[in-house]
Structures are given as C-alpha cells and as structure tokens.
Design goal:
With about 625 residues, the chain is of the alpha+beta class. The chain is built from twelve helices and 27 strands.
C-alpha cells in the first residue's frame, strides 16, 4: 500500500540540478528551446484564433464518486467544494482503496462520446479537449507502459471498459462531427511511486498519445509551479518528440509556472477573463459550466445560457477562446441541465455566430455603451458587431469615438431589422426603445463600415450623438484629502465612503460640439447627478466647471441603494476641448455624503424638466 502523502512526496524528490533557480533553467524559455515551434507559431494558430469556443471534458474515477466518500450517497460524506477531482486528497484516501472502490463503479456506456460530440456540435463548439490522464494517475487511453499494464498496487492505470479505449472513441466521435480533438494530460501524478523514474513514464505516455490517435489539435498539459517546470519535466525532449509526431498541434503554456506565462502557443487563465487583448499572444479561458470540473452530485446549479454567452462575448472581444467544461457522470452521460444550457447557447450562435467566430478584438478602449464589440469581414467589408450586454437607453446606440463611416446597421435575429444611422461628431444607431425580441439572450447589432475601424484613442468620456454626456463613476478621478484616513473609493458601480469634506472627485470630458447644430450661441447643459443617500446623511457641495459654480444640496433619497437623478443646475460652454467637472463637499451631514453613480450633461434644448429636484 502506498499512502497518498508518500506518493506526493516522491514527486518532490528530484536531482539538485532540476531544482535550479528559475532564471538558470535553460528550458524556461518559449517552447523550451525546441526547434521549429516558434517559426510556424502563427500558421499553426490560425484555426485556433478563428475557433473561439471549445468543449473541455473532465472524466475519471472521481466521476464515479461524485463527491462522496465512501462513494455511496446513502452513507458517504459529501465534499463541500462541489468538485470531485481532488476528492482523494480531501478524504486522504490511499491506494489501492481508492481504485478498488471506484473502478467497479466507473462504467462509461458505449456511444457516450458520440453524445458529447453531438452536443458540442449543437452548441457551436469548434474543438474539444478530453482528459486522457488526470492527477489521480488513471488513464482513459490504453497505455502500453509497463506500470500502466501491471503494477503491484493499482494493477493497471487503464480504466476504459474492457475491449474499449475511451480516448480513441473520443477522437473518432469528434472528428465525425468536424470538431478538432485535443488531449489533456496531467503532468502531476498522485499514483506513480518513483519520482526518479516518473519522467521516462511521462515521456513514454505522451509519445503514445502523439503517435496512436491521429492528428490532435492541442496538447493541454497541466500543470507546473516554481521549481517544477521546464527542465523538471524534460520539456524540450517532450516538445522535440511531439513536433515530430504532431507537427501541426498547439501546446499550451503549463509546462511552465503561471497561467499567463508566454512560453507556449497560448496562455491559460482559469476561471477569469483577462483584460486583454494581448498583441502577439492569444489566451484561452477555461471555465466549468457548473462550479467544479468533475461530476459532483451536489453541484446542480450550472451557469445559465446568458451568463455563458456574456463570458463568450467578453472573451471573443479580447481576442481569446473559451474552453467550457462539462462533467459527465460515471456512465459517461452529461447532466440534463448542462445539455439544455449548451443547446440554448448553440441556438444563439446559429443566428449570431458571425459576431463570435473568425473575429478580431474590440477596437474601442473605452466602450460607449454597456457591452463590447468584435470585428469581422463579410463580403470583403468590415463589420463591427456590437454586443449589447444591456439595451441602450433613449433609443440610441452611441458609437462615440468611431471615426470610420458607417454604411448600414442591422439588428441580428430570426427576422433581421434594418436600423438608421445618425450622423454627428461621432456616429450613432437609431434603435427601438426596447429589444424587439425579449427571448434574445444577447442582442447584437452588425454595423457595416466603410473600411477598417479606426477609433479615437483618447480614454476620456466622449460626447454622444445628441451632444450629451453620461459619465460613470468608474471614469472619475478621485482626489482624497491629504489627512483622510478612510478616503472615498470606487465601489461596484459608484463612488462611496465619501465621509470627509477634504475628499473630492473630478469628471473629465472631451467636448467636441458645445453648440447646437446650426447655432452660433454657446451650448447650455443641465448638470445631473445620479446619487443615493441614506436618512440623516447628505450635505452641501459645489459643482464647478470652468469658472461656473453650482451650489447643491445633497438630500436623502431613502437608502444608500435608492439612486435618483437630481439636477445641480445649468452650465454654459462655448468652446470645444478637454474639460473637467469638479464636485467638492462644503459640508457633510451624518456619516456620509452620497453614493455617486454617474454625472450627466444634457443639452438644455433637448432635456425635459426634471421630474423632481431634491436639491431645491
């Protein structure tokens, strides 16, 4: 019997040369210095850049436990983490007990990989990555390594049902659906007993995967950490051999430590979307559809289709891919909730897929609406796809900052709707007051451009097509007082903790058209604050722009979350340019001034009188 703690310790016993400092590791460089990979990097990456959406499939003996140990929902204790992959560590289970109890329960049914492939195709996925070996050390491909065939502890690591090879079934099923297969392989192995011999075992298994299953689009290694990367795995030898066996394959970056290192073909943020895009690099976000990667009886609430699409939208707009994980059960079946979600995502992509696939990243540095953009090509013309994460108010989709002429605009849907373009300092699109299709999970407007999109690079808030400004709190410059111990700060969507009169806030704007069209008179703008104040709090402030000062009372609105739009007064602006609106407290009542969500400037000629004015 080999206790788990000894197996883990064995992997840490390595020659001193392997434990050399990171900056002395000759294989801690792009592709470990293996020849050829860097030269055709972009060529090999082309299909991956266009694919955008893939399926991650985690299956192993842990799937048979489903988060319970002992592996019986009637008597076992449920792992509260909602992920069964590291169940063995959590429950401190030794071998052979772990394998002896789970192998009889692990019975993927014939045709289960066909089920996965059909669902991936219906969901619009372009590639898939399957766990050939997880950290528990069991193999879902039929390895011929001597330890895998027969060993004194677990007897065999190969756990495909008799007469079958699950990895071969996976690649066959997905190729039949036109989906590129890839292989996940855990570099970490909790089972193999001899750290000194493990590297030969690792190399031998990767050679089997590279030579026995046809072309594989991705080698998804997992994972490395400081001191256990590069030379520790013999990475250069691995990539030299993989280059011969799989010359068109991509290699992720986890032969090296850190999710965002650039030593592979793409980097691998897990569970988060990086701010990107990253010129010259591409990333792939891995994300479980539920809370965990492995099947778990307690993990019943998966992400709804809209949340998946919002993430896919964000990832594509930053030039990355989304690898979305499903967790089949011990029979190889996908939970019905996951199936329903992916089918819904696929229906959306069937209509809006041009906004995701084969696209370039968002050209805007500061979004003029709540959402994001991608750029595609249709019939030789550039198309700006506007992903509306929230429907724009006022019947207008602003494209402030876009300097390329807009030729036409269409709201995508089962019945595409042609939209009008509004001219002005920057273009805008006239849209319905609300979404014509309430069942559209993520509306997209496709704008055909007269050339490649060029966007004004300034990061300051820009004037909308109707000459108004809506400046969110996130674009304010906060100016805490020199002696303020707990200064005002940015909360989720507002400025809060405003409790000292020395603290103030600046709102910069880039004014392009102060005057109304056809007028030679200075422009007049109502200044509106969108704020919330609890009872007994508030105060008095001065709102200053240029040489104009507007005194304003900040009075309770009902609570710190009851936001209301209140007028401060009217300012006159005669010249274009970079301006700033300054809000400075004169007196603060109670324990806080206000939660300030945004500042708006509305041309007087276009602004109805406020429904209420709490400050007067």
């Amino acid at each position: 019997m080999i206790p788990l703690r000894i197996a883990l310790l064995a992997l840490s016993i390595v020659p001193w040369s392997v434990l050399a400092a990171k900056d002395e590791d000759p294989e801690d460089v792009p592709f470990a210095g293996s020849a050829g990979w860097q030269g055709d990097h972009e060529k090999r990456l082309k299909w991956f850049r266009d694919a955008r959406f893939g399926m991650f499939i985690h299956l192993g003996l842990y799937s048979a436990a489903g988060g319970y140990w002992p592996p019986d929902p009637a008597v076992g204790k449920l792992y509260e983490k909602n992920d069964s992959i590291d169940l063995r560590t959590w429950a401190s289970i030794d071998e052979p007990e772990y394998g002896d109890k789970l192998k009889p329960l692990f019975r993927p049914e014939p045709g289960c990989t066909d089920e996965w492939a059909r669902l991936a195709a219906e969901a619009g996925m372009r590639y898939a990555v399957f766990t050939a070996k997880g950290p528990e050390g069991y193999t879902l491909f039929n390895s011929s390594q001597s330890y895998s065939l027969d060993n004194p502890v677990t007897h065999t690591t190969n756990i495909s049902p008799p007469g079958r090879d699950l990895f071969r079934e996976f690649v066959t099923s997905f190729r039949r659906e036109g989906i590129t297969p890839g292989v996940y392989y855990s570099l970490v192995d909790w089972q193999y007993p001899d750290a000194q011999a493990y590297r030969d075992y690792l190399h031998g298994q990767l050679r089997e995967l590279g030579t026995n299953y046809g072309p594989l689009g991705v080698l998804w290694a997992d994972y490395s950490s400081s001191g256990k990367e590069g030379s520790y795995w013999g990475c250069r030898s691995i990539l030299d051999a993989w280059r011969v066996d799989q010359p068109d394959s991509l290699v992720n970056n986890r032969f090296w430590g850190g999710f965002e290192n650039s030593n592979g073909d793409f980097f691998t943020p897990e569970g988060y979307v990086p701010p990107g895009p990253y010129p010259g690099f591409i990333f792939e976000v891995s994300l479980p559809l539920n809370n965990g990667y492995g099947f778990h009886y307690g993990d019943k609430k998966g992400k709804p289709p809209r949340d998946v699409l919002l993430t896919l939208s964000d990832v594509a707009s930053r030039g990355g891919n989304l690898l979305l994980n499903i967790a089949p059960d011990s029979r190889g079946h996908i939970p019905s909730t996951a199936t329903e979600t992916l089918e819904s995502v696929g229906r959306w992509l069937g209509i809006h897929g041009a906004a995701i696939f084969d696209t370039e990243p968002n050209p805007f540095k500061s979004m003029p609406f709540k959402g994001t953009c991608t750029v595609g090509m249709v019939d030789g013309k550039y198309v700006l796809y506007c992903h509306l994460h929230a429907w724009p108010p006022g019947g207008v989709l602003p494209l402030s900052g876009l300097m390329t002429e807009c030729k036409s605009a269409t709201l995508l849907g089962t019945l595409a709707i042609q939209l009008d373009i509004i001219g002005g300092s920057f273009p805008a699109i006239r849209i319905p007051d609300s979404s014509p299709d309430p069942n559209d999970l993520l509306p997209v407007i496709a704008v055909v451009l007269d050339g490649k999109p060029v966007v004004d690079s300034t990061t300051y808030p820009r004037q909308a097509a109707d000459r108004s400004f809506n400046i969110p709190a996130s674009q304010a410059v906060l100016s805490p007082g020199p002696a303020t111990r707990y200064p005002l700060r940015m909360e989720e969507d507002h400025i809060g903790w405003w409790s000292k009169s020395d603290d103030s806030a600046w709102f910069p704007i880039l004014m392009k058209e102060p005057k109304a069209p056809g007028s030679d008179q200075p422009g007049r703008f109502r200044v509106m604050l969108d704020y919330a104040v609890a009872p007994t709090c508030g105060g008095e402030v001065e709102v200053r722009m240029l040489d104009q000062v507007l005194p304003m009372k900040i009075v309770p609105t009902g609570s710190w979350t009851d936001f209301r739009v209140v007028e401060a007064g009217v300012v006159t602006i005669s010249q274009p340019g970079l301006l700033a609106l300054h809000i400075r407290p004169l007196e603060i009542f109670g324990y806080g001034l206000m939660n300030l969500r945004s500042v708006r400037l509305i041309p007087v000629a276009d602004a109805p009188a406020p429904a209420e004015n709490l400050s007067r």
